[in-house]
Amino acid sequence: MKKIERRAALCLLLALALFAGLCLFCFRFVTRGGQWASFPSNRHLYDRSGRLISGAIADRDGDILSDIVEGNRTFYPDETVRRATLHAVGDRQGNIGTGALHAFADQLSGYNLITGGYSPVGSQRTMYLTLDAAFNVTAYKALGGQKGTVGVYNYKTGEILCMVSTPAFDPDNPPENFDDEQYEGVFVNRFLSSAIVPGSIFKTVTLNAAIENIPDLYDRTWECTGSTIIGGANITCPSAHGSLNIQSAFAHSCNGVFGQLAAEMGGSVMQQYVDKAGLTGSLSVDGISTMKGTFAFQDEDKGQLAWSGVGQGKDALNPCSMMVYMGAIASGGKSAVPRLIDSIDTGSLLPGGLFRTKQTKELVTASSAEALRTMLRNNVQQTYGTDRFPEGACAKSGTAEVGGGKSPNAWFAGFLDNPNHPYAFIVLVENGGGGASVAGEVASQVLNTIVNKMSN
Fold first, then answer.
1. Cβ(91)–Cβ(182) under 8 Å?
2. Taking a C-beta distance cutoff of 8 angstroms, is the pair 26, 98 a contact?
3. How distant, in Å, are the alpha carbons of 15, 152, 166, 358, 367 from that of 323?
4. CA-CA distance, 437 to 441, in Å (whole number)?
5. Can you say how many angstroms the Cα of residue 37 is from the centroid of all Cα atoms in its chain?
6. Rounded to whole angstroms, how far apart are CA atoms 429 and 15?
7. Cα–Cα–Cα angle for 224, 225, 228, nearest 5°?
8. Residue 84 carries which DSSP code?
9. Labelling 223: which of 5, 28, 43, 326 has CA 20 to 30 A away?
10. Which residues of the chain have a pLDDT value below 50?
């Protein structure tokens, strides 16, 4: 009898294990089935070289950026367009992980839980991206061959209008040697998949924290001599700014003032605000996860904390996340989550998927967002020049020191406070020099192009 009981117990355990395994398989089939089906060894969707042989990709205007012609993957006829849209469209070999040919392969192939990768209607699917290839070309040319990234999106709808990462290459004529210095990091989409020292654009977060934690902030004045000792560290400015209040300190980007504010508030407060801003988390852009930023405020002494408060030290942020934070300031605390897919034409009456606007959590309080909008607008009026940008421009520049004898990284981040053109933006030019002059000029060209076209 005992032997029968032991065998029954063993059978029960095996049955439970089988049931648990079946449940796990079903769960993964539902959540990962698309990834399984779009694996490059699937000959129904890929050729023997691992190239996706189904699905066309178009921009928001309907210009076909990539298609299948007689069983072969083709790209847009113009080389500059191919280079400018490389990190959005992808390459034949799938080296660009954020490219639609790789990241959205299951949707391009028409995969679903019922029919798998087989299309019962037999039609070519066309994925329409939110991007406009013309905006990408403007940004690509404005970068002038320098490494960097440009991103612009509608902070009300989440549509990414422009996403460029450089260096790039021609997917129709890829280089034989990617080890050449000019192609360093070419497979990385800097907009989505990098975290880089931000420089003074990070002072926007420090200002956000100061507004809510220093009661007499607007009554204070500082005297900048070009050098301030904080916790034994010498916090320097490019020049002496003289007498400043908080608005002029932000407009002139005074390291001494913002270093003092960060040190006064302490590491715990600064960490709280960088976390709330979403800069240490990851966004999901139609399933593509952005790189998390890294900050270490709580483990720093006052000198290190001062440098971190001005966007130097151990700070590293993701460009897309900073753009979304700017969008949240523009829209009163929350912003739309960025998206790249506008729609999918299945060639039939069947829907190609639902691509709706989603909101972030609260990244900044409504009252602080209003105060930040005013000061970011003042930066343009007082420092950068309103004539360079479309109406309602609000921005912060950054010149991030990277060491090693290299020129600083140039940043420019902000938004248009304009109901007709609700766009947030981010520009990074690696080793470009001055943020306002170099990255600001790129932003100027791209924003003016976008506003001019979207107004017609």
1. no
2. no
3. 51, 8, 18, 16, 20
4. 6
5. 28
6. 59
7. 75
8. H
9. 326
10. 29-39, 41-50, 112-122
132 Cβ contact list (under 8 Å, min separation 6): 59, 60, 61, 161, 162, 450, 453
Rounded to an integer, what distance in angstroms lies between the CA atom of residue 92 and that of residue 74? 9
**How high is the pLDDT of residue 25?**
57
* Whole-number Å distance between alpha carbons of 148 and 322: 15
Percent of the chain with pLDDT over 90: 71
154 membership: H or E segment, kind and range: strand 148-154
- Alpha carbons 186 and 188: distance in angstroms, whole number: 5
Tens of pLDDT, residue by residue over 287-326, are 999 999 999 887 788 999 999 999 998 899 999 999 999 9
Produce one character per residue of 27-36: b if its CB has 16 or more CB atoms within 10 Å, e if not. Answer: eeeeeebbee
Cis, peptide link before residue 422, omega less than 30° from 0? no
What Cα–Cα distance (Å) separates residue 370 from each residue in 152, 220, 320, 330? 21, 20, 22, 8
Cα 61 off chain centre by? 22
Distance separating alpha carbons of residues 12 and 18, to the nearest angstrom? 10
What are the structure tokens assigned to 41, written together? 């060894």
Q: At what angle do helices 267-276 and 302-309 cross, to 10 degrees?
A: 30
The DSSP symbol for 316 reads: B
**Are 233 and 307 spatial neighbours (Cβ–Cβ below 8 Å)?**
yes
pLDDT of res. 150: 98
123 secondary structure, DSSP code: P
Residue positions counted in the chain = 456
Query: For 377-423, how does the pLDDT look when each residue is reduced to its tens digit (9 = 90+)?
Result: 999 999 999 999 999 999 999 999 888 889 999 999 999 999 999 99
Sign of the alpha-carbon torsion through 308, 310, 312, 315: positive
Q: Cα separation of 456 and 453, whole Å?
A: 6
